[in-house]
Each structure stands twice: as C-alpha cells, then as structure tokens.
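Next comes the chain:
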Amino acid sequence: MLDVSVIEDPAAAATSLDPIRSRLLAELAAGPASATMLAARVGLPRQKVNYHLKALEKHGLVELSGERRKGNVTERLMRATAASYVISPMALAAVQPDPARFRDQLSARWLLAVAARLVRDVGTLITGADRARQRLATYALDGEVRFASAADRAAFVDELTRGISALVAKYHDEDAEGGRPHRVVVALHPTVKAVPPTAVEASSDGASLEL
C-alpha cells in the first residue's frame, strides 16, 4: 500500500468523492475487509457495498488483498491501494489553476495556483517513476517560525528571497550538457488553528515555511 496516491483521472476523482465510497476507502485503508465485513461497519446491504467496491476497483482505488472461504462462499478481501489520496488538478484539466496567467508573490490565490501546479507536476512525476520502477529525486522542507512583528516577517521574506536567489544563481547552469531543470518553490503562509473542521480559520500566531 502506498502512503499517498495521486488521482488524475476525472472519473476516478468523482468515484472517490462519493460519500459512501469515501467511507469504504477509509475503512479499507485501515486494513483488508470483505463486503460482508464492510456492510456491518457502514450499515448497508452487502450487495450495495459490493456495487461500490466494484466501482472503486475499476478505477484502481482498491485492490484484491486475498480470499477466504466462509461456508460455501469464497469472500474477496479488498484493501485500499493507498493510505490517503490527493486529487490532482489534472482531474479538472480545462479549469486547473495556471500560475503563468498572473504573478503576484503577495497573493494568496497565486500561492494556491503554485501549490496546485506542485501537486499536478509531482503527481505526474510519481506516476512516471512508478511505471519505470525508478526512484524520484525530490526534497521538501517544512517548518514553522513565529514572528514578533510584521516588520520581522517582511525582513525574513527579504532575506529568504535574497538567499534563495543567490543559490539559484550559483548553481544554475543554462548550458550544462545532460543537465535537468528543477523547480524550486518557496511558500510562506499563516498557520491554521487546530479547531473543529466546521470552524477552520487562519491564525496570525505563526507562519509555516515550505520549500
């Protein structure tokens, strides 16, 4: 089972967003189960659960884990193909965000467009690497910093910009034979308070940094 799987196909995305199928995915991410076992957990007839499992299996969201004999019946034990799923902007290809349409480093919506492109591109790379059975070379830095003032935050952004720009200038080689371009994404945004899902709001107490 993968830790995270990226859903690029629109039909697979629609299937995963169905409330019942989403619940079944969560159950099967916890461990293999048969339609009979799942029916008891979610309070639905076994036939209806089987119907939903077939739809999930068709789109590669669940897979056969094994079989067991129960009386005169052989039950199929299914499991989720990943512990969690991310829907790529590719699933909405015609209206996916495009950071190239505008560029505003201080715009939260531009940051969202950049993040969406990151999900799309890394998802595509993961799919390709899996097919080629190769390891994908990536790096991520995730941290949190608490600023004493807005002035400190601005100073931090300025220093960070100059530092990253200097590193890019140092290592970028436009004429490197056999070189491969890499994208660098740096994001800074307020952290989100740990509140109930129905009342999520942004907090100004800290900021998270992603690279």
